[in-house]
Amino acid sequence: MKISPVFTALLIVTALLLAGCNQPATPATPVTTVSPSPSPELPSEVPTAVPTASPVPVTTTSVQPAGTPDPNLRLETYVPEKAWQGMTVLADNHDLSRPRIIEVNMKGEITWEYDLPAELRTYTNPGLDTEPLPNGNILFLLPRNGVYEITRGKQVAWKYLDPKVSHDADRLPNGNTLIAFGGGDTMDDMQVKEVNPAGTIVWSWQAKSAFNHAPYLGISTEGWTHTNAVTRLSNGNTLVSLRNFNLIAEVDPSGKLVRTLCEGLCREQHDPEVQANGNILFANHGNPQAAIEMAPDGTVVWQYTISDQKAWPVRDVNRLPNGNTLITGADRIIEVTPDNEVAWALRLSGVTFGSPQEAPARGFYKAVRF
C-alpha cells in the first residue's frame, strides 16, 4: 500500500487528534458484504488516477502519544534527528493464536492494537496488508477471505468478501479499492480487480491477456503469477508485481500491457512503487536480499542490502518524505537514510522461526509510517 506525502501529512494530523481525546468512537457506517461479479466489464470511464503530490515540509520532532511496551518488540536503534517522526502501522503474526494489527510510536511502544476475531485468525498468509486511511480508519486485507475497513473503535465500517484476494489492497482517491490476487492464482483468474464501495467490480486485469505464452506457461510457485502488489499510477495506468515472473508490468485502463520493468534485476520482488523522479523502489528477497531503487533505464541508483538471513523475506519498502526508506523484513522493520545509515530499527524479540517456511507466515509483512 502506498502513501503520498500530502496523504502522510493528513494522516499525522489525524493520528495526533485521535491520540489527544478519549471520546467514544463514531459508530461504524453500514457494512457492505459482497461477492465478486462473475463477469466484470471494463468501465466506460477511465479509473481515477492518483494525483501527483507536492512535497510536504519535513520536521525532525513531533508530539508522540505514549504507548505500552511489548516484550516481543525491541527498539534496537533510534536516532531522532535522522529518523522521520511518525506512527507505524503493521500486522504482527508472530503468535499465530493471536494475529493482530498494531500501531507503534517511535519508541516501539504500542499505541493501538486490533486482535483479529477468532473466525478470521487463519487468514493471515500470504500477506496481511494494512493501510491507515485519511478518515482515521484502517484498511486491511485478509488473504483468501476479503478486505476490511475498521474504525479506531474496532468496528467494521466496510468489507468486501472474496476468497480470491491476497497480498495487497489500496484505497483509491475515488473511494474504490484496488486489490491483488496471487496466492494460488491460475491462468483463468483475475490478478487485479477494482471494486467500488458497493462491492461491484468496475475494472479487472488478467495476466493471461499478456503472458499466455512461453516462458511463462510452465511457471507455478504458490500460484501461476503470485501477483503480490498493485498500484494505480498518476497516468491512470496500473503497476502490477508478478513475483513468479521476476518482473513488473504496467497496463493501461483497457488492460493492454504498456511495458515490463525490472527483468534481469528483480528476484521475487515485492511492493514496487514509482518515485516522483520516475525511478522504481522495490523489495527484493531473492539474490540480493535488498531494497533497490532502479532508474527507468534499469540502472540501480540506490541499494540497501540485508545480509542477515533472519530478516528473510524482505517484502516491503516505502520512501519517506525526508528521503529515508522504511524496509520490512521478517524479523525487523528498519528506517535507513540515503547514506544507508540506520535511523530507526524495531525487532521481534524472543521469537524464533522454526523453519524457513515459518518466516513468511509469522514474520512482519508490511509497515506504513504516517
Describe this structure in words.
The chain has 370 residues and is mostly beta strands. It has a single domain, classed as Neuraminidase (6 Propeller). The chain has helices spanning 5-19, 208-211, 358-362; strands at residues 73-78, 88-92, 100-104, 110-115, 129-132, 138-142, 146-150, 156-161, 169-171, 177-180, 192-195, 201-205, 227-232, 238-242, 247-251, 257-261, 269-274, 280-284, 290-294, 300-305, 316-319, 325-328, 332-336, 342-348, 367-369. The strands form six sheets. The chain has a five-stranded antiparallel beta sheet, with no helix packed on it. A four-stranded antiparallel beta sheet has the order 4-3-2-25, with no helix packed on it. A four-stranded antiparallel beta sheet has the order 5-6-7-8, with no helix packed on it. Strand 18 and strand 19 (290-294) form a beta hairpin. The longest helix has 15 residues, at 5-19. The chain starts with a helix and ends with a strand. The model is unreliable at 10-61 (pLDDT under 50).
Order of helices and strands: HEEEEEEEEEEEEHEEEEEEEEEEEEHE
CATH homologous superfamily annotation: TolB, C-terminal domain
Structural class: mainly beta
- Number of separate domains: 1
What's the N-to-C terminus distance? 12 Å
Q: Give me the CATH architecture, please.
A: 6 Propeller
Q: Total strand count, please?
A: 25
Instruction: Work out the radius of gyration.
Output: 19 Å
Mass-distribution shape: globular
Q: The biggest beta sheet, please? A: 5 strands, antiparallel
Count every helix, treating DSSP H or I runs of 4 or more residues as helices.
Answer: 3
The fraction of residues assigned to DSSP E strands is: 25-35%
What is the CATH T-level topology?
Answer: Neuraminidase
Helix content: under 10%
Strand sequence of the main sheet, in spatial order?
A: 1-24-23-22-21
What is the top-level CATH class? Mainly Beta
Low-confidence stretches: 10-61
The overall pLDDT average reads 87
